[in-house]
Amino acid sequence: MAMTKVALAVTAHPDDAEIGMGGTLAAHAAAGWDVHIVVVSLPDQRERRLREAAAGAGVLGATAHILDRPGTWQVEDLPVYALVRELDTWVRDLRPQRVFTQWHGDAHNDHALVARAVGSALRHSPADLYLAEQANQYAASAAPFPVTTYVDVSEHFDVKLKAVACHDSQSAADTYTEHLRARARYHGERIGCAFAEAFSCMVERLEIPRPETP
Amino acid sequence: MAMTKVALAVTAHPDDAEIGMGGTLAAHAAAGWDVHIVVVSLPDQRERRLREAAAGAGVLGATAHILDRPGTWQVEDLPVYALVRELDTWVRDLRPQRVFTQWHGDAHNDHALVARAVGSALRHSPADLYLAEQANQYAASAAPFPVTTYVDVSEHFDVKLKAVACHDSQSAADTYTEHLRARARYHGERIGCAFAEAFSCMVERLEIPRPETP
Amino acid sequence: MAMTKVALAVTAHPDDAEIGMGGTLAAHAAAGWDVHIVVVSLPDQRERRLREAAAGAGVLGATAHILDRPGTWQVEDLPVYALVRELDTWVRDLRPQRVFTQWHGDAHNDHALVARAVGSALRHSPADLYLAEQANQYAASAAPFPVTTYVDVSEHFDVKLKAVACHDSQSAADTYTEHLRARARYHGERIGCAFAEAFSCMVERLEIPRPETP
Amino acid sequence: MAMTKVALAVTAHPDDAEIGMGGTLAAHAAAGWDVHIVVVSLPDQRERRLREAAAGAGVLGATAHILDRPGTWQVEDLPVYALVRELDTWVRDLRPQRVFTQWHGDAHNDHALVARAVGSALRHSPADLYLAEQANQYAASAAPFPVTTYVDVSEHFDVKLKAVACHDSQSAADTYTEHLRARARYHGERIGCAFAEAFSCMVERLEIPRPETP
Amino acid sequence: MAMTKVALAVTAHPDDAEIGMGGTLAAHAAAGWDVHIVVVSLPDQRERRLREAAAGAGVLGATAHILDRPGTWQVEDLPVYALVRELDTWVRDLRPQRVFTQWHGDAHNDHALVARAVGSALRHSPADLYLAEQANQYAASAAPFPVTTYVDVSEHFDVKLKAVACHDSQSAADTYTEHLRARARYHGERIGCAFAEAFSCMVERLEIPRPETP
Amino acid sequence: MAMTKVALAVTAHPDDAEIGMGGTLAAHAAAGWDVHIVVVSLPDQRERRLREAAAGAGVLGATAHILDRPGTWQVEDLPVYALVRELDTWVRDLRPQRVFTQWHGDAHNDHALVARAVGSALRHSPADLYLAEQANQYAASAAPFPVTTYVDVSEHFDVKLKAVACHDSQSAADTYTEHLRARARYHGERIGCAFAEAFSCMVERLEIPRPETP
What we know:
The structure is a homohexamer. Chain A is built from 6 helices and 7 strands. By secondary structure, chain A is of the alpha/beta class. In chain A, strands 3-2-1-4-5-7-6 form a 7-stranded mixed sheet, with helices on both faces. Chains A and B meet through helix 1, strand 6 and strand 7 of A and helix 1, strand 6 and strand 7 of B. Strand 7 (about 195-205) of chain C pairs parallel with strand 6 of chain F, so a sheet runs across the interface.
């Protein structure tokens, strides 16, 4: 019987996962992983953005989840401890092997808060944790992003763009294509492939795969 | 037909690999990897230390290599560019998927030089690179060691100690046991296992293993 | 007449001081210092945790203080400026020479907020400030902890464990023994003693003790 | 027709701009720039501090602005996203080429929050961003301040002190003179002038001025 | 009479300036600056690489200089103090306002040594200093590159590629085109232009240009 | 019988100790410590600089030592391992409790090499280690200097200047007075005294002095 492996992405807003790690999530889904996206905040247009989140995740082969709260809200409207408590439940239920989230040095305060909360929520979990580079243009972030970990997303880059395009309430859906392509090409050049996404490893247990046998 | 996977350790002195990453190398060998140790410098007692290096590597299930130079020498006796040229050959011949070396922030200048040379030698290679924590007592190193990557070596810790003990020309062989145990327990506690070795990931391509099928 | 010297610990929760710096506080008390612990938040079980805090501090030879608020609360329920105002009072009244607190890079947001508040509260005070390493297992903190300062707690380690055990409302009281022992051994090995606690010095005025005369 | 150039300072409290970057703002005003100061919080004595802010800015040749809220408040009383929204308006209206603000590593939490908000508010703007060193005495801040950028304020240092003195509700107005002089001398020595202010460059587009022609 | 402004690039090898900062140097030349490139080492094919260096510099509108030594050599063949002494002469003679060099964290040891030497050679000079990002593929460098300073090279990118192509003894001349384009697009996206080069500011004196008058 | 306490300064050149830590060494001597200065390199004017080193140390109440080599030489003329071997002897013979040296991030390569060598030489020693801020003007060093540790040298600042003045072969002796005063005032302001020297703590064992009794 196959043991299901689980990848979990946690991001502040409905399109952050597609923009920051969409190719990586699609690659995990394509390899047979169970992929989940937890979106922490629904800042406006509740119904529309719920639909977009579900559609974007669907394109990637993932399942979208939103905090169970009525209306719309911002990450900062919850204290971090309340957010940690929510994430505790997902971590306990989904038991992910790998968690992807945003970067605590990101210039967007909501992204940084989510990063802190995810770090806390993994305090009893053996999951590996990778943080995604900030995707804003004109980024004036607080510190250089310390890339350690690349994911070759060459075969999943079109899927990523299609997933980003699901968020048509956001200007990002239209204008980010060129931006995301430039970024993925740059990181791809670093590891010798067409397109890559870049992460900063916070903690991982190095697996030692057995060489495949025929 | 099985594709052989290759792990390469590059260290300044004959017992550095055993002390800094012996459990990790043993774990790779046990999983069927082809494991090589390149020792850069043979600072004294040529014949004895050659024998010790071969013995230590053998205990780990690895093969030891030494630079092809007569007599004894220190890392600093070679310019870094000559060392890089030597390493280029090994990297080209062994084609490792994973490289383990020492840390450029290590207080021992030879360790730091080896780290720099290995970084250069991988400039055309798709190998992942992990740096090992400095193992000296009384360590007054230049910066905090940024652990990202842990290897569970619980099942290989006795083998590691046995490999360290092969270097009986070194006081380390006698007195490091307690030191290495305290260190591996500490890192093990961090990831929830008995013994672990800790590394700083410099660059890696994240593999996405398919869930195993029955 | 002896000038009393004062050490002040400020931590987020009732057992944090015992876990993070219990040996250090016990060593100061044993050397004749006046030792105080300010606990910022009482998150649950008010009466029980008040008793535990008093008991733990007592074992260390210290006095516990809690913010004067009814009921239970989290650090985040106060704005940092309100917390700074409270700490201002303690700093002014106790006039500590040394302050120990948590680390601003700690993955637990409450610990990081306390660190920030303490830094602010010392803006007019000549106290030295040391930050303690985070004690969680599975720690996925934001940056490597920059140890500068070690305290040999070999003679006070049993007292520390006894103080931690006073917090029997917390699972920590049961399961942290092995964890704390591995950590203190590791740091002890670094400076050549049995058990040590590790701190990051934020600011200190180096004292120049006169050699003792017979 | 001359193209007006605009410099914008954003700080937490009414005297922060004068203390941290007063010479720099005066130098920009003297060179013909349009200089604006946005003060985020009015923590007490509303009418008096409004007058002081206007007077201090006036001495520097700048215009002071305060958030349009009744009464007094602290930075933390607004969520960061609300602050970003306010700053968005000023950035859009003033269209600054250069923005000066406080440092995200400052020990004062309000200063750090303002730094974060300004970073976010520039996400669509091509403005250069420079962060000012923290001016508190007894500073126990979270990390070393990474100076990159110096401004020679030798000809504007008296104006700066005069502007600081406008804030006579603050003890700073009296006691900071010697402190600010020591700081500006130190930084001046670094670049070979009498007095300098020091900044950390977050992002800039390097201009390439044409050599002047007669 | 126009005051000539001088930009100086110092790099380890003949094609480093073109690859790392060619667009920036071309932009300075186009704006009327006097632009000089000092190449520290001539590692092989003396005559050919001298010609290539002259040609590459010529395309950028700059003048190439090489250390006055016979034959070929590596950076490491000189002690850093001898290199500093050589650079002292150029700095004294050329009196640059801006200096561009390589990054001390670059994985190539020669690049790092040049960075150190340039830092020393500016100890008595009021020049601003900017370090260029490492251009190797498969870069496993020692730390994240801390970009602060961008130069819009959109109008000079073709000239840069033409200058790189002058170094046809190097494979870089052929294969770097795509790599350099991906890199410059990525940095361009960050500041909202087509192509940019990225630098880390070590020290600068902020100029305050007067708004232009008609 | 009084236990003598020993402070050891190790610096690259004859006037570095006086400039970087002269007040601190004088303060230790005044408190009854045995103070030694090891100067690693004698770059020129052998007899004159030997006399200056002895004179400068004498003013501070310290003893100067120079490596036992004929003629003049630079730090880089020795491999680091040879320097470590020399320092091993001094550390073993003098058995210092406190070691002061230069900073590994200093822009002067010799200073950085000495820092590395001292770190290595303390690998078996329980000495505390503090690094001094770089004293060059126009400093374009590699990273911000992370001050942790201040020494109040108000009562020893005149002695420091007198010791610097002993090195009259160096222009520093004449022009550094104002520079050193600005620096010491700045650091003094940080801890609330007239003059201070600033250090970065690499490793220390925190002493817990007993309150004095009458």
